[in-house]
């Protein structure tokens, strides 16, 4: 019951995947189907929705109503859904003169929380005015999602209805937004549930990246209605087929309607690269693996690797792939299928259309889809191709497979090549099918490159593999990227080169000097797609950026800071005047990392924006929400004590606890000491009013330790005033653990708190460590240690520990070894 004395209840079933058995006796295997006759008796003030349109309404007694729906087609029970919602709810439709969408409705459920928290107090007690205001606000917020839903649906009807004769069984799709849905979305036949926050895009209040997320989510669920629901998997082991097709075709449709979104380019750098990174450490199960119940389904395989593998076929076969999907749906609609049914449908289209993909096929005279795709769906990991040129015979290229695959792996790989002279990244006809096994001899391919040309393999990263060239070819690519002609290399291959090189470097297969030479070209690059792998590399390496005493890390930060400075001089820090969505994304990321690398220009810019914002008493210089943290935290790094106090007073006024975290970003030791003194327990006892509540004190303490414990002066201050600074609600062991997790040198670990500062007997930070720097940390795998060493190694050999390895070892000790002696420390604390 809300403050207007109106109930706002939403009732929705959750039958996926085996939850239907909780409500009614049933067979809930995906291969088993039935026709469902659904009728719902409910109060007349409620609206009932289900899989099919309403056939009739029957008024009953006592204000009750029967809603009777049309019978469903044959389908598994996990696609059945029922929704009951209290009127009013938002039901809007976008109609265009050139496009009509007679079967699509978008429903937003009006939940009690929104009216309860209505920002317009004058509307209190007037439900109609509150509701109208709510309609107006939310119709704008979900407008972009509506446009995606309706445009994708319309294009499907135009492109697919002629061939999918019974597709008219999809008579309506209702989109239901629910505040606290456990998943991003759940799709049923004719109904799609979304978590409300995931379909809201407000142009001036949400970062532009959210637009891409909303588009992908809605398009995926619409596509599921047309393809995923029509054919169900014969077992849970094959659920990845439906999701893979829905994700891939959904993005392909968006790409056709909204070309500026470049959603397929984003797919490669965000999804395919992520799949390769996860598959490196065998974190992804094979697509085809035994699944006895839905809880065993690997989400990485289902949502990441599946569409990536299908993209290989899509890029390779094009129309034959699309027509194969059509044939697959026509032959198996309202029935269940296995992966081989899909491969047979595609194979039929290849044969029927006389599609000859490659003028030269090695070992495989006829394209056999099932044989080609078998390794990619049944095996883990992926191949790494070693590509070596014969510089005495410029036409000869040798390709071999990395020897890290099992004896059972047999890969049919679609190899595409271009040269510097040709730089044709769109011609897939000049390609080679090669079959690689660990026992295979290297393949020799003849090309037409000139002696000084580079060659690039895997055009537009069509294949699911990595490529490692001989050092000379790597240098030729790097030199070309660092020239004005760099844009002649396709954007996806520029991204692929950075991503492959980083992975090969951190796994010890590529000298680090080559990687950093490649990345130096980024000072010319203004495309977010090409920058994306480097941004992910920054995230991966962020764990070592705190090792400021290590010279190689300082050098890396300086070099990357200079590159970012050059880019930001071109694109600026202000995205308001920028129209291109990808440039906006690059500005946000470049500004974030430039300040992380302590680039003075970036920090000064943030400080200027912060002071300008704090001087604004009339809201004219309001910060965009996604720039708020950067402006406050990075601007606070060099802020004066006066600015710091002004920000603290802003927290007192607004009680926005995020500001308390921003206040810890200052690099001024005296300000940090002042901040800590304001949180001291003694200070609280002497004050007539407690400035900070317990949860706020804990947040401040943990934030300061995380940001500043590696600084000797601040660490000593914390240890010397440990009892007073430590929140009373936080145990000594928890506080010490947090300190230990944020110091990075042996010397810091040996510092001792003041005897009067803690109740722990002889509580040296180092007392919980094995401080012998030659000891190997037991919890850190050898492979992980080697990876981090390779980022900064001076020589290409991996024999023996070097200075970077030792420094990293100490870093990992400080993160992991604490658990070994935690019991002993707790015993001392109890004394």
Automatic annotation (TrEMBL):
Membrane topology field: Lipid-anchor; GPI-anchor
Family, similarity comment: Belongs to the peptidase M1 family.
Its biological purpose: May be involved in cell cycle regulation.
SUPFAM superfamilies for the chain: Leukotriene A4 hydrolase N-terminal domain, Metalloproteases ('zincins'), catalytic domain
One GO location term (cellular component): side of membrane
Span of domain Peptidase M1 membrane alanine aminopeptidase: 170-350
Organism classification: Eukaryota, Metazoa, Ecdysozoa, Arthropoda, Hexapoda
MF-aspect GO terms: metalloaminopeptidase activity; peptide binding; zinc ion binding
Compartment annotation: Cell membrane; Nucleus
Domain spans labelled Aminopeptidase N-like N-terminal: 8-79
Keywords: Acetylation, Aminopeptidase, Cell cycle, Glycoprotein, GPI-anchor, Hydrolase, Lipoprotein, Membrane, Metal-binding, Metalloprotease, Nucleus, Phosphoprotein, Protease, Ubl conjugation, Zinc
GO biological process annotation, one example: proteolysis
Keyword check for NADP: no
InterPro entries tied to this protein: Aminopeptidase_N-like_N (IPR045357), Aminopeptidase_N-like_N_sf (IPR042097), ERAP1-like_C_dom (IPR024571), PCNP (IPR029169), Peptidase_M1 (IPR001930), Peptidase_M1_aminopeptidases (IPR050344), Peptidase_M1_dom (IPR014782), Peptidase_M4/M1_CTD_sf (IPR027268)
Protein known as: PEST proteolytic signal-containing nuclear protein
Superkingdom of origin organism: Eukaryota
Primary location recorded for the protein, binned into one broad class: membrane
Names of required cofactors: Zn(2+)
Record text on subunit structure and interactions: Interacts with UHRF2/NIRF.
Organism: Camponotus floridanus (Florida carpenter ant)
């Amino acid at each position: 019951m809300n403050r207007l004395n109106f109930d706002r209840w939403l009732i929705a079933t959750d039958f996926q995947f085996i939850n239907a058995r909780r409500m009614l006796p049933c067979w809930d295997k995906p291969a088993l189907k039935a026709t469902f006759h659904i009728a719902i008796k409910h109060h007349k003030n409620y609206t009932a929705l289900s899989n099919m349109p309403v056939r009739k309404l029957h008024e009953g007694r006592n204000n009750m109503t029967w809603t009777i729906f049309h019978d469903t087609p044959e389908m598994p029970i996990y696609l059945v859904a029922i929704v009951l919602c209290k009127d009013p709810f938002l039901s809007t439709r976008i109609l265009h003169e050139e496009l009509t969408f007679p079967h699509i409705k978008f429903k937003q459920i009006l939940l009690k929380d929104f009216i309860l928290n209505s920002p317009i107090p004058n509307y209190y007690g007037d439900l109609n005015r509150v509701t109208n205001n709510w309609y107006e606000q939310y119709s704008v917020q979900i407008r972009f999602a509506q446009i995606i839903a309706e445009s994708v649906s319309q294009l499907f009807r135009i492109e697919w209805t002629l061939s999918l004769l019974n597709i008219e069984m999809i008579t309506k799709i209702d989109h239901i937004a629910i505040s606290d849905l456990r998943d991003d979305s759940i799709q049923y036949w004719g109904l799609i549930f979304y978590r409300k926050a995931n379909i809201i895009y407000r142009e001036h209040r949400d970062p532009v990246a959210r637009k891409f997320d909303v588009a992908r989510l809605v398009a995926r669920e619409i596509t599921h209605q047309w393809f995923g629901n029509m054919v169900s998997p014969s077992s849970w082991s094959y659920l990845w087929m439906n999701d893979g097709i829905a994700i891939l075709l959904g993005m392909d449709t968006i790409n056709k309607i909204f070309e500026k979104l470049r959603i397929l380019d984003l797919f490669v750098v965000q999804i395919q690269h992520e799949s390769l990174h996860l598959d490196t450490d065998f974190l992804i199960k094979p697509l085809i693996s035994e699944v006895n119940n839905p809880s065993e389904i690997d989400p990485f395989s289902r949502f990441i690797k599946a569409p990536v593998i299908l993209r290989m076929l899509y890029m390779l076969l094009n129309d034959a792939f699309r027509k194969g999907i059509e044939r697959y749906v026509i032959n198996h609609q309202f029935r269940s299928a296995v992966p081989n049914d899909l491969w047979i449908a595609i194979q039929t289209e290849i044969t029927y259309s006389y599609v000859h993909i490659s003028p030269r096929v090695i070992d495989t005279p006829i394209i056999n889809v099932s044989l080609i795709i078998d390794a990619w769906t049944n095996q883990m990991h992926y191949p790494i191709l070693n590509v070596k040129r014969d510089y005495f015979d410029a036409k000869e290229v040798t390709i071999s497979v990395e020897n890290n695959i099992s004896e059972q792996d047999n890969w049919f790989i679609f190899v595409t090549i271009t040269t510097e002279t040709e730089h044709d990244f769109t011609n897939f006809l000049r390609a080679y099918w090669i079959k690689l096994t660990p026992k295979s001899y290297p393949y020799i391919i003849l090309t037409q490159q000139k002696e000084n040309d580079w060659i690039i393999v895997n055009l537009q990263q069509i294949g699911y593999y990595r490529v490692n060239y001989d050092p000379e070819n790597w240098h030729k690519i790097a030199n070309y990227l660092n020239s004005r002609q760099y844009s002649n290399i396709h954007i996806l291959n520029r991204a692929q080169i950075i991503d492959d090189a980083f992975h090969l470097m951190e796994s010890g297969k590529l000298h680090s000097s080559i990687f950093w030479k490649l990345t130096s070209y980024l000072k010319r690059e203004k495309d977010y797609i090409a920058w994306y792998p480097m941004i992910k590399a920054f995230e991966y390496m962020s764990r070592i950026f705190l090792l400021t005493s290590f010279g190689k890390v300082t050098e890396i930060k300086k070099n990357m800071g200079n590159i970012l400075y050059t880019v930001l001089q071109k694109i600026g820090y202000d995205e308001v005047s920028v129209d291109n969505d990808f440039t906006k994304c690059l500005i946000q990321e470049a500004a974030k990392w430039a300040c992380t690398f302590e680039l003075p220009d970036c920090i000064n810019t943030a400080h200027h924006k912060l002071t300008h914002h704090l001087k604004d008493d009339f809201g004219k210089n309001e910060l965009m929400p996604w720039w708020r943290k950067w402006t406050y935290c990075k601007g606070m790094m060099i802020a004066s004590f006066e600015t710091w106090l002004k920000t603290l007073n802003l927290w007192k006024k607004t009680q926005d606890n995020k500001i308390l975290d921003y206040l810890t970003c200052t690099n001024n030791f005296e300000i940090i000491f002042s901040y800590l003194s304001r949180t001291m327990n003694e200070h609280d006892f002497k004050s007539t009013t407690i400035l900070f509540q317990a949860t706020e004190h804990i947040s401040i303490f943990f934030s300061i330790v995380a940001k500043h414990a590696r600084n000797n002066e601040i660490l000593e201050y914390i240890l010397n005033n440990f009892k007073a600074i430590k929140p009373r609600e936080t145990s000594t062991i928890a506080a010490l653990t947090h300190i230990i997790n944020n110091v990075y040198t042996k010397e810091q670990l040996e510092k001792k708190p003041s005897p009067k500062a803690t109740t722990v007997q002889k509580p040296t930070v180092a007392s919980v460590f094995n401080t012998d720097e030659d000891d190997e940390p037991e919890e850190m795998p050898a492979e992980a240690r080697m990876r981090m060493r390779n980022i900064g190694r001076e020589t290409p050999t991996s024999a023996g520990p070097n200075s970077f390895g030792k420094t990293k070892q100490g870093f990992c000790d400080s993160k992991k070894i604490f658990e070994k002696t935690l019991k002993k420390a707790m015993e001392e604390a109890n004394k």
